[in-house]
Amino acid sequence: MRSGKDSIVCHCYCRCPHVILGCSVGASLNGFEEMVEFLPASDTKKVEKMSPKTKLLIAGLVLGALLLSLTVGLLVWHFAYRNVPVQKVYTGYLRVTNYPFINAYENPSSAEFADLSSKVVEMLQKTYQTSPAIGPHFVQCNVTAFSEGSVISYYWSEFSVPTYLEANLDAAMSDLKVQTVTLRQRGALYVDSFVAYSTDPQMARTFRDNKCMFFLHATDGAATKFSSPGFPNAPYPPNSRCQWALRADASHMIVLHFKTFKLESCKASKGDYVNVYDSLTAVEPRIMIKLCGTYPPSYNLTFISSQNVMFVTLVSDDREKHPGFKAEFSQIPRTTLCGGTIRDANGVISSVFFQVPEDKFVKVRFQMFYLYEPGVSITSCPNDYVEINNVRYCGERAPFVVSNNSSKMMVKFRSDQAYVDTGFTAQYLSYEPKNPCPGQFTCKSGRCIDKGRKCDGWNDCGDSSDEVGCVCSDKQFRCKTSQYCKPRFFLCDGVNDCGDGTDEQDCKCPDAFLKCRNGKCVPEAQKCDNTDNCGDGTDESDCGSAKPTDCTAYTYKCQNGQCLNKLNPECDSVADCTDGSDETFCDCGKRPYSRKTRIVGGVNADIGEWPWQVSLQTKKDGHTCGASLVSPTILLCAAHCFQDTSGIRYSDPSVWTAYLGLHDQATRTTSKDVVIRKIKRIAAHKQFNDFTYDNDISVLELESPVTYTDFIQPICIPESTHVFPVGKSIWVTGWGAVTEGGVGAAVLQKAEIRIINQTECNKLLDGQLTSRMICAGYVSGGIDACQGDSGGPLSSVEANGKVYLAGVVSWGEGCARRNKPGIYTKVTEMRDWIKQNAGL
Ligand code: ARG
Hints:
Shape: globular
CATH topology of the largest domain: Thrombin, subunit H
Low-confidence stretches: 1-48, 178-186, 336-351, 595-602
Largest sheet: 6 strands, antiparallel, barrel
Bound molecules: arginine
Strand order of the largest sheet: 36-37-38-41-40-39
Helix content: 10-25%
Strand content: 25-35%
Number of helices: 10
Number of domains: 5
CATH superfamily of the largest domain: Trypsin-like serine proteases
């Protein structure tokens, strides 16, 4: 129904809720001007016949009934809810200053413990009785532990309070906290610093139930181990509340390290979690970290206490089952470095005042810097920070240098009580005031970099001082905003290298034209018209829809022969092929340790980060090539790894052993995560050209299949039509040489590189590329694969979250040289060959 004024107001009875819904929309249009009543048709007659008197009577009765139900409701609410007592538990600690700490206080069943704790309990009870908002609700309190200083007493107090007085109790309890003066000399105790925090009652249950409460004291020299209940044979129990009170000797700190951590994945609310407290009880402000989910073993889960105590809690809900955690802790003497003075020429520090010989200047190089706190500004650094010359540094930072034009430097390190991070390591150095970087370029910050890195278009100094005021060479162009000189072939490569788009500005095609991946411009109208106008399929491969089209070299081919013009349709969780074949072989490219981790101290990979990486070894040479696992029995590798030389018949499968699940070469025979297999068959590409390295690919068959684990997983093989766009960041991994001509790495290395435009790369490599090769790396040099990485994967993390094998490490001119990116076998070009030779 519609009124003439565009306003609809419905007067509805509760019997027609569907009408009420409609009303709210209309009513919000224009206000209440016309009443439209919906009445049940059967009632119409009755309503018409009613006298005014009857109407009044009915109205009176309705009103009376309403009042009655309101009163009943209020009473029910008052008695049933408002007055319902809730259980409140506070945990806290207080400091007793007139008792010295004795070892017996560590043992809750000692007479000394009982004596002091009864005094503390009495003092608490008396204190609570002084407050009318607290006293009447008090139920009981108990002391759980003591620690040094003089004696810190940890306790919990339980209250039973009507809901409506809960807030009053909270306020009164937090007031008590600050009234430290009035508490002094109460009972026979001198008490200062008295704190109490409301605790999750779920957690508080365990205060009375010691079933899952553990008291551990660090032993000298050896680490003390503990783990979640049942670990590793059974999952930890549901709905459990476990606690570990960790102690060290006086004047020591605790170093806690989680060796395995596999809990239910982190959820926004609830879920299973472990808390670590810098205290002997679970008080919120002393929380160091809350952990949930799964961490790869290489993730640095190490925490250091500020005093000689630490508290760990495990809370689990009723869902899912997970293995739990394994941890160990040990004690280290409390450091006294803070505020010290160091007078040697060089050294490693934590946080101090430096003075180098008078005739030298001092600088500090931070190698590792992790002072991160979630949600805290890294510009103002209000909580934990390092301060040098009134500048604060915090957050997670790449290595950096701070220098002083003097022989003295004050480095202040401040950390507050809440949240901890790994910290930092730094090195202080003295330098000649006149020649800070002998043979190198001196950045404004004092950092020394290789001279060749000046004016190369890369901010090597970190403060851009190596890139300002440069004259660009004829191989470079100048970015507008930064004024950096960058390599010319960054122009129009589809990647915003300058940051302000200068390098991509004049590359656009005219309006109504489409830009092909090869740079060509074609009319928009030619897009998806079943003709490859670009010449590289760009205009025909990405038509958004998965509508069947004519098959071309750029369309995706389903198993039933149907062709689609959707870009990378494999495993995107949409069945595009009518036979669903685009979603069938998707059990690949997964990393059980999916958490994003820091690259700590360089380019060591994390354990389990590249579970398809294989090390191929021979008896004579040890590790020789990398390879990628693609099925339980098949590895993909380079062909050049199996070329016979005068000494060894590398083409003979029996000389090779494959190591899967390997991280550190030093543990290849001892690590339980490593699986070793002999090779049964080697199929190197017949057209491999050992002069040009064209067709550098091979398939290896393992003697027996491997079982997939957290550390062993297959990588996805891309279809021939899969597009890895230029500029995409991609990862290369291996145990190859860490410098050109150098020795191999023990720990698997990873490097993030970028796919480089084929035509431009070919120019840099004097036309040596074929269409079966793909270029990736950095023109600035510095990051690349090298000898020993051959055969290994070029891993691309795709939009569907899976990792695809974009390339196989093949060759390069030297390693990591400027203008000489690495060359990889293009797997998409080898798709049919792989099918024929591996059946995959
Ligand atoms: N051919 C080398 C090997 O056998 C790999 C070379 C890769 N070089 C490069 N600069 N990306 O290990």
